[in-house]
Design a protein that fits this description.
Length: 131
Amino acid sequence: MGDVEVDLINRDPNNLNDHIKVAFEDVLAEPEGAHSIDCVWRNSYKCFNCSKGCCYNVLAILCGIPLALCWGCEFAVITFQHVWQITPCLRAFMINCGCAQKFFGTCLQCCLGPIMETCGLCFSNIVVKNS
């Protein structure tokens, strides 16, 4: 595995969680004509950000490492299944389907091909005239 450094600045380089970027302005907004006094708005902003940050950090401290362990095991199992079960099974299925496709195609060409060709020749001589 080697020593890989984790990026402590950009923690979502693939933008997996853009849908949960929530700021105060995304949740609370006072329309024109319905403004609270400035100290209420300013302190609400501070309360929202502080509680959101603290709650997230407490949950991350309590659950982050155990959940990372569980997700690591989950993806290890998925990788194992794909390497040792799903991909070989799919490959065997594709090989067998290719063989069946050739067999079925040959049967159709031998049995139905001449019949369809004869019908095509018969119907190609039909001429329709509008009067």
